[in-house]
Input
Amino acid sequence: MPKSYKVAILGATGAVGTELIQLLEDRNFPIADLTLLASPRSAGQLLSFKGESLPIDVVGDRSFDGIDLVLASAGGSTSKQWASKIVAAGAVMVDNSSAFRMQLDVPLVVPEVNPQAAASHRGIIANPNCTTILMNVAVYPLHQVQPVQRIVAATYQSASGAGARAMEEVKIQSRAILQGDPPVPEIFPYPLAFNLFPHNSPLNENGYCEEELKMVNETRKIFNAPDLRITATCIRVPVLRAHSEAINIEFEHPFSVAEARERLSQAPGVKLVEDWQANYFPMPLDAAGQDDVLVGRIRQDISHPNGLELWLSGDQIRKGAALNAVQIAELLVAHDWLHPAEAAIGVGANLG
Output
């Protein structure tokens, strides 16, 4: 009889948490028991899973007893707070926060790029940043043909990246502006409706924000290319759901557009969207709710003989977060990597 697993979702009521529940059902993940965990303010709420109404439990010291897998999407501080207890209980945590992504002994995994990295976990696997995931899925198939020398990325990030309340804020602000009232920002520092601004994550001394540096450092780790030259400019735009990115890729030698198009048309997790006559290419409206990263407008960089340009849109909540986490869980189950004997070694000071 096929194995089934006891799974917990930490942060079950958030935008990513509810998407995790739906994906586990849609993809028929082998679940024996599903535990939904959140903060006290969500206690008593009910969420649907396979026709049943499951209660939200308040996360506590005994929440992970007997659990095999924890899908965490409740923020970095919450992940750090509970990581040691999760691993000590014998569970594996697939963490959607930035808490452990750059820790040397924590795999950072995009299943279409470096699935084998998941096997080396010591109780924790990190889910990369949403913009990193979308870019990596599109760039890695080309990197396999000819190693990338440099990436220049510009992102157009939707409100969904800041959660369900941010998406609602854009709707409220839009109605206010159309009625002639001033838009009031609460989740974002500035009004996003009918506006855009550089990503609101903290700025580093070098002038880059945290979101931009995540794309740089995480891609180097995932590609196992510590010297890969990457720069990014991340912008928040008035789109509800799905991020878009303009990517310039430089290779050592020319890379034909025809070969790039062929490789991407066959790449896992990618859907090629190009209608040059209609000027129709990936759009957030088309990407929302889709598992694949939509890629198109592939063209020669006219400023560099070894450069290619491409444009992509991908659902930040699905492939940029929840779907990637579920795919990692599927890898663990398929290869029997969920309970390696050495996993418990990961419990230590580094988890705090």
Remarks:
- The CA atoms of residues 271 and 294 lie 5 Å apart.
- DSSP finds eight helices and 14 strands in the chain.
